[in-house]
Each structure stands twice: as structure tokens, then as C-alpha cells.
Amino acid sequence: MKQSIFILLFIFLAEYSQSQVNGALHEKSYIEVDGSADTLVVPDMIYLKIEIDERIDGKSKIAIEDQEEEMKKTLIANGINLEDLSLSDANTDIVQVKWKKQILSKSNYLLKVSSAKEVALVFEKLNEIKINDIYIEKVSHTKYDAIVKDIEIKAIKNAKHRADYLLHAIGETTGKSLIVRHNNNIYPYPMLMMNKRGIYDDKSSENSEMKPERIEIQFSKIKIASNIYVKFEVK
């Protein structure tokens, strides 16, 4: 009885080992490739963070509400749509004024503009009314989703093309895809090209009669890139 069980177990193990070998021999070969594509676009959605602090001017306290009203009038006068201005958040900060602690409020606003020219305009006009804390919060593009779709298609086509010519070199052809993985990258903070002094290249220190020269402000382009890994079956 024990001998019969041993023989059956031996036969089972032999058949199992053979099936594993046959499976390995008949396993289909594959090729792994990467395809990539990218493009550069000028951002047309620039979000500016504007901070307004309640401040002391002489003996008078200038409230945030008054500064906000003046900011809105300035923006409207220069063709900026107030629908693109929103209150980001509000908080308080403690500052030292004449050796006494006073709690002064602070408000943050978010303004969306569409070009470097408008960025320059906002910086200039708000600086004139002593609103100086302006930063670029983020940038994007109105057609971002369509651009990503286009470069993803190009990237996966490039992967297929690469597999085709590599396999053609050894007399084989590309089969169906087995695995696809993709990774999109955007570098969302392009460099704002502007003089350290702000909107103007001020040469008046050298010649008091010389008018400050406006400098050109430009954004470097956003790079949107896609890299796709594909594992193809080899026919």
C-alpha cells in the first residue's frame, strides 16, 4: 500500500515538473520600451497672491477695508476684471509698534491674470498705492488637459515605433501590449523675467532728470512632458 502511494506521488511530481518546464518553454517572449513626448507652452493662467496688511501711517491706522477698496478701484481703472479676484484667506499677526504690541489684521487675495503684461501692470499699479506684497502663487494653461492628451498619444506611439524597429532588426514583430504605465510631468513655476527693483529699471540715481525705463517682463514656458512604459508581446 505504501509502495503504491509512493509510486503515485512520484508520477504526480514528475508530471508537474514536466508541465512547468513545458510552460516555461512555451512562455511568450516580450520587449519593454519607453516612449516620451513633451511640449512647451506659455502660461495663460497666472495666479497672483496679494497680501494686504493693516498698517500704521504716522498716528493713523489704515484699515484693510480701505486698502481693499482702493485696490479694487485701481484694478478696475486698469482693465482688470474683479470677477478674477477672490479672498484667499484672512488671519492676524502681531507686530511691534513703538514698543507696544498691537494686533494688526492681514488679508490674502488671489488674482487671476492671463499674461506677463498684466502681471507687470498689477505689480506697477498696486505698488503705487503701497500694496507691495505680491507673489506668483501658481500658473497653468487653459488647454492643459488637451495638451496632456496629445502628448500622451505621441508618447505611446513613440513606444510602439521603438519596439517595431528594434524587433524588425532581428526579424520579429510587435504583438499586443501587456502592460502600460505612464507618468506626466509639468513644471508649473516658470521663471518671471524682471528687474530686481521691480517693474522699472531705475536709472534716476545716476541722472535725476532721466525718466525710469520700463523693462519687459516675460515668462519662460511651461514644459509638459509624458513618459510611457509599455511591455509588448513579441510575435
Could you explain how this protein is built, in words?
This protein is of the alpha+beta class. It folds into two domains: 27-42 and 142-235, 2-Layer Sandwich (Translation Initiation Factor IF3); 45-140, Alpha-Beta Plaits, CATH 3.30.70. It is built from four helices and 13 strands. It has helices spanning 2-26, 64-77, 116-128, 144-168, and strands at residues 30-41, 45-53, 55-57, 60-62, 85-97, 100-113, 133-140, 174-186, 192-193, 200-201, 213-214, 218-219, 222-234. The protein has a four-stranded antiparallel β-sheet. Strand 3 (55-57) and strand 4 form a beta hairpin. Mean pLDDT is 78; it is low at 21-26, 94-100 and 193-213.
Question: Could you name the key traits of this structure?
Answer:
235 residues, Alpha-Beta Plaits, 2 domains, alpha+beta, Translation Initiation Factor IF3
Largest sheet: 4 strands, antiparallel
Report the mean per-residue pLDDT as an integer.
Answer: 78
Helix content estimate: 25-40%
CATH class of the largest domain: Alpha Beta
Portion in beta strands: 35-45%
Distance between the termini: 50 Å
Number of helices: 4
CATH homologous group name of the largest domain: Protein of unknown function (DUF541), domain 1
Overall morphology: rod-shaped
